[in-house]
Amino acid sequence: MPERCRIVVLISGNGSNLQAIIDSCDDNLQANLVGVISNKPDAYGLVRAHHNEIDTSCVIAHQGESRAEYDARLQSALDKYQPDLIVLAGFMRILSDEFVERYQGRMLNIHPSLLPKYAGLNTHQRAIDASDDEHGASVHFVIPALDAGPVILQAKVPVYPEDDAELLAQRVHEQEHAIYPLVVRWFTQNRLKMTEGVAYLDDQALPPMGYAAD
Fold first, then answer.
1. What is the pTM assigned to this prediction?
2. What percentage of the chain carries pLDDT values higher than 90?
3. Cis peptide before 116 (omega within 30 of 0)
4. Of 51, 62, 111, 124, which one is the catalytic site residue?
5. Which helix (H) or strand (E) element contains residue 198?
6. Residue 62 is among the residues annotated as catalytic for this protein
C-alpha cells in the first residue's frame, strides 16, 4: 500500500457513515478520501463530500441496464480514483460477483445487524419481530455472497420492548459511526487484511463474530 491509502466511499443516501469517516480523516489516519460515488444524484452524502472538498461522481442506473453493465460503468468511475480501499456506506445496490472479486480484500461494508443474523434488508424490524434482546451492526469484508464476508468488528445495542424500527435504527447508527472509522483506520495502518476468506488483524485470525467477540 502507498504511504497514504486512497479511499473511495460509495453511497446512496444521507451519508452519515461517510461523515463519520470524513471526521476521522486526521493526520494520524495516513489516508486520503479521494472520491465519493453515488448511484443517486440527490444523495445528501454528495453535499457532505462537497462541503469537505472531496471529488464526487454519480453513476446512475439506466433503464433496462443489466447489473453487469452497470457495474462496468461503476468500475470505470472507481478506477479513475485508483483506490486502495473501497468503503460501502449505505450503497443500496447488489454488486456482481465479477465486480466484487476485482476488489476483494480491499472493499468493506457495514451491515445493520449482528451477522450472520439478518442479511439483506429490514434488519431492525426483523430483530424486533424475532423478540431479540440485542441487535447491532457488523463491519465486514465484501465477498460475492451477500453480507457473508468475514466479520471484522461488531457493536451491540439492546432492544427494548417499546422499540420500533426507527428507534432501534437510531441506536444502531450511533454505534456504526464509532466502529466504521475504526476499521477503516486499521486498514490504512496495514493492520487489517483478508486472506483465503479469513479476516486478520495484526496477523491474528479474527473469530467468526469479529474482534473482541464475547
1. 0.95
2. 93
3. yes
4. 111
5. strand 198-201
6. no
